[in-house]
Amino acid sequence: MVFGMPTPDEIVSGAARELRSRPQFPPGFGEDADDDAPLPTEPMTINMGPSHPAMHGTVRIILTVDGETVKEADVQVGYLHRCFEKEAEYATYTQVFPYTDRLNYVSPLLNNVGFAMAAEKLLGISDKIPERAQYIRVLIGEISRITDHLTCVGASGMEVGAFTPFLWMIKCREWLWELLEELTGARLTHSYVRIGGVAADLTDNFAQRLRDVLAKCREAMVDVEKLIVKNRIFRDRMDGVAVISAEEAVAYGWTGPCLRSTGVPYDVRKDHPYLVYDRFDFDVPVGSTGDNYDRFAVRMEEMRQSMRILEQALDQIPAGPFKLDDPRISLPPKSQVYNTIEGMIGHFKQIVDGVKIPPGEAYSYTEGGNGELGFYLVSDGTGRPYRCHVRAPCFILMQSVPKLIIGAGVADIIPTFGMINMIGGECDR
Amino acid sequence: MLEFLADHSAIAALLKVFFLLMAFVMPLASLSTWAERRQSAMMQDRLGPNRAEITIPGLGWTLRLWGITHFVADALKMAFKEDLVPSKVDRVLYGIAPIMAIAPVLITFAIVPFGSDLCVGKMTEIITSLEGCRRTIPLQVVRLDIGMLFYFALASLAVYGTTLAGWSSYNKWSLLGGLRASSQMMSYEVTMGLSLMGAFLYYGTLEPNAMVLAQGDNPLNWGLFYQPLGFILFLTAAIAETKRAPFDLPEGEPELIGYFVEYSGMRFGIFFLAEFIETIFLAAIVTTVFLGGWHVPGLHEDGFSFLKLPHIAVVLLRSAVWGGKILFLCWLQLLIRWTLPRFRPDQLMRMGWKQLLPLSLLNIVLTAAWVLWRSAH
Amino acid sequence: MSQDLRNAPTTKPAIAEALRDIAAPAAGATAATPVAPAPSDMVTIKVDGREVQVKKGTNVLEACLQNGVDVSYFCYHPGLSSPAVCRQCLVEVVGQPKLVPSCYTPVADKMEVVTNSARVVQARQQMLEFTLVNHPVDCPICDKAGECTLQKLYDDWDHKGSRTEFDKVHKPKMADIGPHIVLDAERCILCSRCIRVCDEVAGVHQLGMAWRGDREQLTVAPGQRLDNPYSLNTVDVCPVGALTSKDFRFTLRAWELYTVPSVCPGCATGCNVEIHHGQGEVWRLVPRENLSVNKYWMCDDGRFTYKEIRSRRHSGARIGSGRGLPAQAVSVDKATSFAAERLSGTVQKGGTIGLVFNAQAENEALFGLSQVAAKLEAAGATVRRYVVGRKSHPERADKILRHADMNPNTRGAQVFAGAGAGDADALRSDLGKGALKALWMVGEDLPFDDAVLVELAPSLDALETFVVQAVHDSPLVRRAHVQLPACTWAEVDGSFTNAKSMVQRIRCSVSPAGDARSHMELVSMIAKKTRWVEGEAWQKSPRQAFLQLTAAVQPQDGSAGPFASADWGRELPPVQLRFANSRG
Ligand code: SF4
Ligand code: SF4
Ligand code: FES
Questions:
Q1: I want to staple B238 with a disulfide (CB 3.0 to 4.6 A). Which of A244, B282, C368, C569 is the partner?
Q2: Which letter does DSSP use for residue C487 in this model?
Q3: Half-sphere exposure of A6 toward its Cβ, with a 13 Å CA cutoff?
Q4: Which residue's CA is the closest to the ligand 2 atom numbered 2?
């Protein structure tokens, strides 16, 4: 016997069980007589993640592979579930901001903005937000979009083995984060937006420093493109891999850069302009084939468009207050808090009870890093959401991953997964 | 003493092995682990490892040396790490695999000439040729007629190390890695062998030192210029043999983690080191076959035309330049490794069989025709 | 951000409901279902354009509150008279030229009340502004912060900045006005609720107002102390942090506390309380409205009963040879097995077993014990039952709330021990006579002085088997062969029957100390291990026990028995005080 059948004692692990269910070999197999008999093959079930370097620690794919070809894929999300939505019900609206930072944690400010806008919609003050605050939101939002795409694009290079561009992009991201750190006080978890505006005004010289950083980032992006966009190996790995048609993408509910890669020019900023997006001149890049390379290229181009928006916003931003002047929504100034009982009580109640929002429900959606980021809020009149739901774009993207990877090679899973840009914090919430 | 060595070639061989492996290859391999990290850091705008330092006891001096001593720290770390053996592995094969991976490369160094022959007795004299030498010590561990074939034979053994490591680890990921390794190495071995055929025809020998001699000290006569296609094909195939990027599929860090995923501590360290030794060996072979081996441009047996040198100086200079060529090639490999993305298995196979193989056959045909034409005239 | 926010409910539905449950009369209270008033008692008035029907004689403020219209108020309290001193409750009554204080204006038929006109809102805001003029900026160090009515009203209605430029008037801070209470006269908003509590509830005039105008302040008469036995109720009714309890001051902030409705274990009255707990410990008890028991009040002694939860606990099982000799710490499981072995041994030998029904234990445990007794008697064993508890203090009894009997569940113990049960003296004499071979005490309390206990010691030591389920450690407990750790009332779900035979729910608030188990669980474990009672409903959960016991004690003739309207009630989610908005 060539392959000994295992004794029952050996049958402990899954692999051993597989051995046992091995199909019977053709008669005479392993005895030298019949060399022409076809070699029996069988698919292998292999568990990718959640503890796997490419699965970002939060996704598990149970693969059935035939050699290196994926035959079946069972994608399981939820390993990073943190009860965001439930937690939000036990926090005041303002206290939810730090939680939103942890949704898509490479573009926290976009989530901040999205949540603030939902709360403002429910309060009915969307049109009262001071202009300067709206411009600041656009600025930080677009910076965050750039950091988001830098991470995604860089990481996808890394995932096909090109480590160097990744670090170049991370370097750019770091420059941007340094700027945001100076502005918000935190490098990653900014919690900078507030209902009715933002927490603080722009720092001195922000405009000039941002312009400098953007110039440097442009150079770095050119370098990256030189290094990988024309690289045969990179193109071979990305072109025509994991193709999805526009119809299918729409049917799956795709949004964001992934949807645009299939040629559908849907961008919330253009189609349902919010904040002051209708005042900027920018394009919505679209792809043609909906493969990994298109998703890569759309993101690259989107960064450039974001830079355009940033520059226009810097030119247009007016002076003025950076948050709504309403004692029910914005905290009173510290001089009042420390010196008058009125300010003290106002501050105290806003911190302990939260900003009270009249009963009702609202869905507000913005263009997040990965697509349409929606917040659905129900208020019962207290300072805490009665229900808070997030339409997490990459959660919806994830449902199509099996479709994309079945039939591809094991090695294709990684770049595909990378270009979907699943962010555990957002997908699993 | 040199006379004694010239008479007892076995002892000489031992000494040479010692010199070559302990004084050159191993330190260089260890250093290249640091160099790789440092060089990649420079390419990527990082600092890389620059902190390890040695404090000389008593004197209180601290040597930092750009962090070179990191490799010592790394080695110590690996040596003292827990040697974790998963419970279900095939213990025998699991234990043998790292040895199988490192031994063949170390052995094949035996055929690499790392300097010209030493003429015992005329060390300080200026000699024009080795003709008159009674006793010589070749700076090569063994001089085998089958030369390069010995290398091919042993190189194909190295595949067992990786394949067995993947198979015996009782882990599906390492099994995939092992399979990738075996298919990749076997396929590229073919190209590797065939791409050198042209050089064999051209030099008319399989013996490395003879090849070096045939190239001479005129760089224009080096194999690189006569076998440009062979050079590129060989370099590509040989990098594939070393399993480094863009051919690091068996490792495939984001996908498979590699055939050695279940290895830890020094066992992993051996695989790691073997990879770097392979890069050095690849550099040595390329130097020998295509870059004039230990030849220094313009350096004859008696020194440069403008500056006569004693024999010993000539030999030392040649060995040093040989080392320099190897360093250059190692650097080149690191550069490639940190620039290119990784192939996909099917693309790799396609390239190996459908592009490199026909090209290397073409190379043979062209070279053969040319050799025939040359001998006819 | 305008009117609808103001009229919005200020708590989440679930929490509001839970809070309602807390506020509602305790489960099982014999409060007769209010008889629907005859139509002639009702008047129809219009509140903010909405027609509502209210009882004659209610005042406008109550009428509004009953119909979910929020009218701010400070000095009105449902349990006290209305002097209309704060003017915070001003509303417009159509036809009257001036705004009227709603707490002082009785409803009249066809009256039209407006509570949300600009005039009324402005009046409210102005009253708040007045109140705040001299209010210190104390919230961060004020114990009331987070549950302060002044904060709530400012947040609900005002939100205007300060307009004064003058120094605030200073008054005494940290005035020690009574054994349990500290006064901060600056925070006082002069609502006089505390004065009325003393006058109308405790029946003593200990507090009063002195001075006039912005110097007016609350004070005790010189040489007097605020030391009546109901003094801490002033802290509860105080809408601000002027009166604070020395006991609770500077322990936890109000918003860190969770609240659980329960019943005070201090005496047989069974005042309804809220247990305020946080960080795994109970921090204070405050009265909970139950018009048929304690109205809105409780006595000071009752408030301090929570301290027993923390002190002198017997928190790990011990077995030994009794007689006060060192015993061995074991698991509860092992200890109950040991107890079961010894008890059944004694019973098999035909020895008389004494079962002690302690009036400190909850109904469920005592019911379980009664079931065991019944089984044993049915099997022919000689069983004697005793009802004991803590010593009475007739001197403390008054006509208000305080009861001489210091046990919360004497009625329950009597019901379950049955007619033939002896009292503590019977136990003492039986022990003295050596009539008992085994003694199983559910609860360690005995109404005896130390001298009596010393005298009893030899007869206890003579027992063949002595099992005690004890909440607190004591020399008596250390004489037992098996010393089982039991939970306090705050650590179990169950019920007490008060002196008026009302069965009231107690609820678990904090986790038991150490290894402690509820009396019921211990009884059930021993009953199972002796194989006397197995697999009965009461052994499964307190709720099952409650359902079984209410059915069991129902009189056969169909008349309403002592447990007639007993109800287990709902499970309550933990309610954080943070979201209760204000108290007092
Ligand atoms: S009484 Fe209320 S408003 Fe006054 S200091 Fe205390 S918490 Fe603040
Ligand atoms: S101490 Fe409190 S209850 Fe008493 S009058 Fe002042 S505010 Fe009112
Ligand atoms: S509540 Fe009516 S005057 Fe104070």
A1: B282
A2: -
A3: 15
A4: C238
Q: Measure the CA–CA gap between B248 and B342, rounded to whole angstroms.
A: 7
CB-ligand 1 contact for C144 (6 Å cutoff):
yes
User: Chain A: residue nearest C255 by CA?
Assistant: A352
Bridge partners, residue C497, by sequence: C503
Place of tokens 């990305």: A238
**What's the domain count of chain B?**
1
Q: Worst-scoring range by mean pLDDT, B275-289, C244-258, C382-396, C566-580?
A: C566-580
Residue for token pair 């120094």: C167
Q: How many CB atoms lie within 10 A of CB A283?
A: 13
Residues forming a β-bridge with C260: C275
CA distance C43 to chain A (A): 32
Task: Write down the pLDDT at residue C418.
Answer: 83
Q: Judge if the beta carbon of residue C479 lies within 6 A of ligand 1.
A: no
* pLDDT value at residue A28: 53
Domain A53-427 = CATH 1.10.645.10? yes
Q: Which phi and psi angles does C328 have, rounded to 5°?
A: -100, 135
CA dist A143 and B100 (Å) reads 52
ipTM attached to this prediction: 0.79
Q: Per-residue confidence at C23, pLDDT binned at 50, 70, 90? A: very low
Mean pLDDT of chain C: 85
Query: How far does residue C52's CA lie from ligand 3's centre (Å)?
Result: 22
In chain A, what residues touch B250 (CB-CB under 8 Å)?
A: none
Q: At which residue do the structure tokens 């069989």 appear? A: B353
pLDDT at C15: 46
Average pLDDT, consecutive stretches of 10 residues, N- to C-terminus, chain A (429 residues): 40 44 53 61 82 76 84 86 87 89 88 91 88 91 91 84 84 90 88 88 88 90 85 83 87 89 88 88 87 89 90 89 85 87 89 86 89 90 86 89 85 84 84
What pLDDT is recorded for position B3?
Answer: 67
Q: Is residue B212 part of a domain?
A: yes
Query: CB neighbours (10 Å) of residue A17?
Result: 12
State pTM to two decimals.
0.77
Q: Rounded to an integer, what distance in angstroms lies between the CA atom of residue C480 and that of residue C356?
A: 14
Chains B and C lie in contact, requiring 3 or more CB pairs less than 8 Å apart: no
Average pLDDT over residues C177-205: 91
Helix, coil or strand: residue C484: strand
Domain positions in chain A are: 53-427
For A378, the closest chain C residue by CA position comes to C12
| Nearest Cα residue to atom 6 of ligand 2 | C188
pLDDT band for C6, please (50, 70, 90 cuts).
very low
Q: Which of A339, A348, A356 sits opposite C8 (nearest CB)?
A: A356
Q: What are the structural domains, with CATH classification, of chain C?
A: 3-23+35-132 (3.10.20.740), 139-309 (2.20.25.90), 317-579 (3.40.50.740)
Write out chain C residues lying below 8 Å of A348, CB-based. 139-140, 145-146, 151
Nearest-neighbour CA in chain B from A113: distance (Å): 33
Residue C281: exposure state from Cβ atoms within 10 A (0-12, 13-18, ≥19): middle
Ligand 2, atom 8, residue with closest C-alpha: C191
Taking residue A69's Cβ as centre, other Cβ atoms within 10 Å add up to 16
Quick: pLDDT tens for B308-350: 778 788 888 888 888 888 889 888 888 888 888 888 888 888 8
Q: Which residues of A299-329 are buried (b: 16+ CB within 10 A; e: fewer)?
A: bbbbbbbbbbbbbbbbeebeeeebbbeebbb
| B336 in A contact zone (CB under 8 Å) | no
Do A and B make contact, counting contact as 3+ CB pairs within 8 angstroms?
yes
